[in-house]
Amino acid sequence: MCVRMKRVMLTVAYDGTNYSGWQIQPNNVTIEEVLNDHLSRLLGEEIRVIGASRTDAGVHALGNVAVFDTNARIPGEKISFAMNQRLPEDIKILDSREVAADFHPRKQKCRKIYEYKILNTIHPVPNYRLFTHFNYWKMDLSLMRKGAEYLVGEHDFASFCSVKTQALTTVRTVRSIDIQKDEASSIITIRITGDGFLYNMVRIIAGTLMEVAEGKYPPEQVKDILDARSRSAAGPTAPARGLTLIGMEFLEEKKEEDFSKKIPEKN
């Protein structure tokens, strides 16, 4: 009997604390390596996944996406259950399903959602140490939100990109930035949705907005930072532990929707 090749998409969640990012690299354990190893052993063939987002060392995910091809007869939707019995506790498959043979997660139009979390207290809280960046400086969220307004829309984000980038263009579109604080935990969450992000872009945005919130420079200076198109103009790259890839939405070919450049004030 001829076995049909199929392409399976995985939605992957992980705590990136103990991993050197997504992409395979020599002498370091990565998310991609762990998935390849366990899938290959489960399915009895060599498997190499293609990830949608190559998160950095220490960055977390609730909804990264990867695909792979297999001749195995196990239904795509069953692979998540079988894999989760084998994977370590800090990597799990939230969903698995068969997709079109030509579906490529890095060649599709999509929206990505990231969250950067800041623990804004006088003293660090060990319970939050793996998933938040601790900052004891008093931060004014109204200033942070005003600074964020300048980043929404299509811009050249060269100032908010690592010098190590290999991107052909530094123009990107940020659809929204929402900033909230949970008063019970004192955790500030910067939620950013965009059509694509440059290397370290979200972490540099977070580092810059923290400096605005601390009063180191006015919100209006964020526009000047954008216009400078120089990494040296922006704030520091915030630590990886505070960043989580929340998820991504793959879009069909359709007319782009309008989006507001105004972020509503929220308490």
Describe this structure in words.
- Helix 3 crosses helix 4.
- The protein has 5 helices and 10 strands.
- Strand 8 and strand 9 form a beta hairpin.
- The longest helix is centred in the N-terminal third of the chain and has 13 residues.
- With 267 residues, it is of the alpha+beta class.
- Strands 1, 2, 3, 4, 5, 6, 7, 8, 9 and 10 form a 10-stranded mixed β-sheet that branches.
- The chain is globular, with a radius of gyration of 20 Å.
- The C terminus is likely disordered.
- Helices cover 19% and strands 28% of the residues.
Overall spatial form:
globular
- Tell me the β content: 25-35%
Task: Give the topology string: H per helix, E per strand.
Answer: EHEEHEEEHEEEHHE
Largest sheet: 10 strands, mixed
Tally the helices: what do you get? 5
| Mean pLDDT metric | 92
Which structural class is indicated by helix and strand composition? alpha+beta
Radius of gyration: 20 Å
Key attributes of the depicted protein:
single chain, 267 residues, alpha+beta, ten-stranded mixed β-sheet, globular
Provide a concise account of the structure shown.
By secondary structure, this protein is an alpha+beta fold. The chain is built from five helices and ten strands, in the order βαββαβββαβββααβ. Strands 1, 2, 3, 4, 5, 6, 7, 8, 9 and 10 form a ten-stranded mixed beta sheet that branches.
